[in-house]
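User: Hello! My lab partner asked me to get a predicted holo structure for this protein. The small molecule is flavin-adenine dinucleotide, SMILES included with the sequence. Please write out the structure tokens.
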Amino acid sequence: MYDVIVVGARCGGSPTAMNLAGAGHKVLVVDRATFPSDTLSTGVLSGDSVNRLRQWGLLEKVCAGSGTAVYPGTRIHVAGEAFDIPGEALCPRRTTLDKILVDAARDAGAEVREHCSVTGITRDGEGMVTGITFQSEGQTGAESARIVIGADGRNSFVARAVDAEVYGEKDSLACAYYSYFTGFPVDRNDLHFADGVAALAFPTDHGQSLLAVMQPSAAFEAWRADVEAGFRKVFSAVGLGDAFAGATRTEEYRGAAQLPNYYRKPFGPGWALVGDAGYLKDPVLGQGVNDAFRDADLLSAGLDRVFRGDASFEAAMSEYQQTRDAMTGGIYALNHAFSALKVTPGLVQTLADAAAAMQAARG
Ligand SMILES: Cc1cc2nc3c(=O)[nH]c(=O)nc-3n(C[C@H](O)[C@H](O)[C@H](O)COP(=O)(O)OP(=O)(O)OC[C@H]3O[C@@H](n4cnc5c(N)ncnc54)[C@H](O)[C@@H]3O)c2cc1C
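Assistant: Hello! Below are the structure tokens for the protein in complex with flavin-adenine dinucleotide.
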């Protein structure tokens, strides 16, 4: 019997497991993936996430693993103006970042089982979640825990199995493709918006650049027929057509047609949610990893109090939900406004002011 079983071992799951195992609790983390491995993400670390890696003692490993150094925030170009959004940023490949997170969970004392797919949730007679069933290497099995945590991402099996309440839903407005390139030098997050489109460039592992394009959702079906043509069109629209023509793509394009936005109630009898499983949003401002890291710290601190007998599960988890929602409400609305891709200087200034206020609050 574990104190906690964490389903999913990336940005939400591994830090939660690391914190709880480090605090002396018995933790099992399972993921159907093996590590290192990639996932659908451009990998930008925004907000407080660079500092959180520093606090966890992992920042140097991430910089060394990706061959990059922390750079200053984001520059947003719109209507001929450039705005600097204050902060620190990094854009490690998820192959690099997630492996470091998984290893950190293991080093802290969590048991990590890779290539292990959760197939069911077990419950007691009163409906309280008591554990998982899984498949691994052709075998099936079951494990039990006081709490099962869904850190299993945007299509969370755990959230669906417990029928977690969805609220704050906003329309999916944009679609995106991205890939990796050489010959397109960029030294910070560089976001270019023109009417209804965005071209994004980020410095990533070992001198490569990650280039992404966003267009309205309705453009997806036509765009997928010739992704490269969409990149040429949008990079030209923001004045970077020549720079894009001089770049060499090193990998396949990856894309997402739907970029939904919603919160889920992140706890119930015997279960909790962290990361995308509990709070999902369009990736236009690169908030997802930052949110997963922050919520991993909030959730694990709350559960630690529960296991030590310092708070009831209901009280600690209500506080987790309220803190998460209070800290994200403003940026969630702003992020959704950006995802409409009709960005104005006024909207960018609002983001810059919000980022400056968050930085000042952190001290
Ligand atoms: C196109 C795109 C670009 C993005 N770009 C950025 C960006 O630049 N910056 C940013 O901050 N965010 C970005 N995001 C969002 C970011 O990727 C997520 O917010 C982040 O990965 C959430 O982490 P997580 O740990 O909650 O989930 P995930 O990273 O999705 O990890 C979930 C894990 O759960 C495992 N899992 C799922 N189901 C099961 C099961 N049944 N059994 C066992 N394991 C299971 C999966 O294998 C996976 O490893 C982007 C998203 C998209 C779609």
